[in-house]
Write a structure and sequence with these properties.
2 domains; about 25% strand; Alpha-Beta Plaits; alpha/beta; four-stranded antiparallel beta sheet; binds adenosine-5'-triphosphate; six-stranded mixed beta sheet
């Protein structure tokens, strides 16, 4: 779908993209990087709106240097910043964008109604956009990117400014753009964590350079940590503590499951090999407890780039910012 080869973009004072080579297939792909990493610059080059300084890129097999108009016919674009006219309704605006894309009047109206229904704006579609919430405005921007039924959409920071619930809704919507309509998606974010459940593939850039390009499952490989949850019993009213004590007696270090709800009932141990599973089975049986869950923990994408001993190299927003949906330099 997208291929770049040694792509660079130099502004007088800054190199926004530095010899970046990548290959992106169909599906939902996340382009992740801190603010200023070069994400928006990449999208503008891929749309043929801004020329690269060197290197080349193709979108849907079309050269960005010479086929910009043909690319924009086939690709939808949701820009990062607010760009909506306040005095017109979502219907008027999206119909206008559909007409600009070349749809005849009737088709434009029909596609607009369908698309606004899909993004969850059907009820409010005749109200002026100026009175919309941030989440509703983001949906209008998404609708205008989809209205001409593109093969691919570029979504630039679509969760920007949304609260955690609004972000989850938007991420679900993005996933459905692909599953319901077969449209491939390139979505940018400065929050690694939010792309984990949305994207099939993640490309990470920092300072205009490619840090990593992998499928999401490669990022989230199994760890050696086993999470175990047991029932309580009459003999052991606190089954979790009894289990921890039994492991410690056998020289197996334990910890609890972290901050998540219910984590206090989860015991974590490090698997040394297949025999660890037998040990767990025997320990739980000896205590007369019920085994509720035993599973291998998976990495979270953000952990891959947040090694505990190298916090200064972590190029992305802090975990706290990820949880609150905040960003340090909103603009
Ligand atoms: N037209 C321009 N002229 C000069 N410098 C620019 C221009 N556009 C972008 N830059 C610089 O290029 C670098 C990459 O910017 P870009 O907007 O692509 O980053 P980004 O990853 O999209 O971040 P953000 O989410 O903050 O927009 C930044 O240092 C930015 O200041």
């Amino acid at each position: 779908m997208i291929a770049t080869e040694s792509l660079s973009k130099r502004f007088p004072r800054v190199t926004a993209l530095d010899r970046l080579t990548m290959d992106i297939g169909p599906g939902v792909t996340g382009l992740v990087g801190a603010n200023g990493a070069g994400k928006s610059t990449m999208i503008k080059i891929l749309l043929g709106l801004s020329p690269a300084t060197e290197g080349r890129a193709e979108v849907l097999g079309l050269d960005v240097a010479t086929k910009g108009a043909a690319i924009r016919e086939r690709v939808g674009y949701m820009p990062e910043h607010d760009c909506l006219p306040p005095d017109v309704s979502a219907t008027e605006f999206v119909v206008h964008m559909a007409r600009m894309s070349g749809l005849p009047p009737t088709a434009a109206r029909e596609r607009t109604a369908d698309t606004l229904r899909h993004v969850g704006l059907y009820e409010e579609r005749y109200r002026p956009i100026g009175g919309y919430s941030t989440g509703m405005k983001q949906r209008v921007k998404l609708a205008q990117a989809l209205v001409h039924d593109p093969q691919l959409v570029f979504l630039d920071e679509p969760t920007n400014g949304l609260d955690p619930v609004g972000r989850d809704d938007m991420l679900d919507l993005i996933r459905r753009v692909h599953t319901d309509f077969g449209i491939s998606v390139l979505v940018t974010s400065h929050l690694l964590g939010e792309l984990e459940r949305t994207c099939d593939h993640v490309v990470v850039i920092d300072g205009g350079k490619l840090l990593r390009s992998s499928s999401t499952t490669d990022f989230t490989q199994n760890t050696a940590v086993l999470a175990i949850e047991v029932t309580d019993s009459d003999e052991h009213p606190d089954g979790t503590s009894a289990l921890r004590a039994a492991f410690e007696e056998r020289g197996i270090e334990t910890s609890t499951g972290g901050e998540l709800p219910g984590a206090g009932h989860t015991v974590l141990i490090t698997a040394q090999g297949e025999e660890t599973y037998d040990i767990v089975r025997d320990v739980v049986a000896d205590l007369g407890l019920g085994l509720v869950r035993m599973e291998q923990r998976r990495h979270h994408i953000a952990e891959v780039f947040r090694p505990a001993d190298e916090p200064r190299q972590q190029p992305f927003a802090s975990a706290a910012a990820q949880q609150t949906g905040g960003r340090s330099d909103d603009h």
